């Protein structure tokens, strides 16, 4: 990106020079860990263990703290609030702005912006975000990829007049607030859904007009247990005419109804589904919890690949979506405990047959519960789509504003 800017020419009024011309580069260090008095002294210290807290604007808290003694007896420095930091080792290219004075480890580069005439903190932070793919490309190393200090000493940046930087930062901050608000709505939606599921799927909360006792049955009183048949990706194609589901598709996030992802070119392969089948993965290399991911399949004649447990209804008295919710969210730990294996963890139909479940005796109550839960799923999906759109739109806007391809209008008084 820096090369392209130089070759294409800098926008009118912008300056292109070494980053150190515009911001003061600061250092980081790790106090001696053999001295306990250097640690846990109330000074927040950013290290690689804080990687998950980066790329979110401000960094508010750190995994570890150091002490005044640690500062005095090492090269660590307490940087002022507003210092911009960037990871140059594991998690290369991740950045943040200090919400309060903090120190950093030697794995970070830190810059201080004057926020008056030369460089605005948030303009610079967003520029680092745009540059992240370039930083990732520059990292070298077999075990831990890193970027050496000489790279940053030669790093150049194109910056507009300070008033334009402020305006750009203000615009992007508005997008950040919209993103943050949507993320909070998603978190709240997830919490409400979890609470609602715990109440509805256990009978603690009932709909008006339903007072009958729930029935307690074994799973094999409701389903027969089958297994999908071998279905390789070589037999699938976007141009195929037969719907099919491969084992790996069951590891995507929980779906009320699985959608067509692959098409099968051979109509004789796999196990044909019937409407109302409930699908559960039968093996994994990670954790038994991953096997407790039930999916309702309402379509008939879908080809089911191997390593899929197929729960086929014995009658029409069970709502498939209700059962998928129940198994996934209420019975998942019990299902996981029935899985067997170490390197490869298996879950067989025979492991599921004796599973005891409670459910409404009437199909109508099951359907009402499922309809409400599906509505909350839809709400979550809409919010997630909105969040994805906001992030993509902000990313596109950053590419334009931070390279001068799109200019902002500055009030004459401010200019």
Write structural notes for this entry:
- It is a single chain.
- The protein has 415 residues and is α+β, with helices and mostly antiparallel strands.
- The N terminus is likely disordered.
- Helix content is 33%, strand content 20%.
- It has 3 domains: 158 residues, Alpha-Beta Complex (Adenine-n6-DNA-methyltransferase TaqI, Chain A, domain 2); 102 residues, Helix Hairpins; 145 residues, DNA methylase specificity domains (Adenine-n6-DNA-methyltransferase TaqI, Chain A, domain 2), CATH 3.90.220.
- Strand 6 and strand 7 form a beta hairpin.
Topology:
Elements: H1 2-8, E1 15-18, H2 19-22, E2 24-26, E3 39-46, E4 58-59, E5 64-66, H3 68-72, E6 84-87, E7 95-98, E8 103-104, E9 108-112, H4 121-138, H5 149-154, E10 156-159, H6 162-200, E11 215-218, E12 223-227, E13 242-245, E14 262-264, E15 271-272, E16 277-281, E17 283-284, E18 295-297, E19 303-304, E20 308-313, H7 320-329, H8 332-337, E21 345-346, H9 349-352, E22 356-359, H10 363-401
Helix pairs in contact: 6-10
Question: Keyphrases for this structure?
Answer:
alpha+beta, Helix Hairpins, Adenine-n6-DNA-methyltransferase TaqI, Chain A, domain 2, 5-stranded mixed sheet, elongated, disordered N terminus
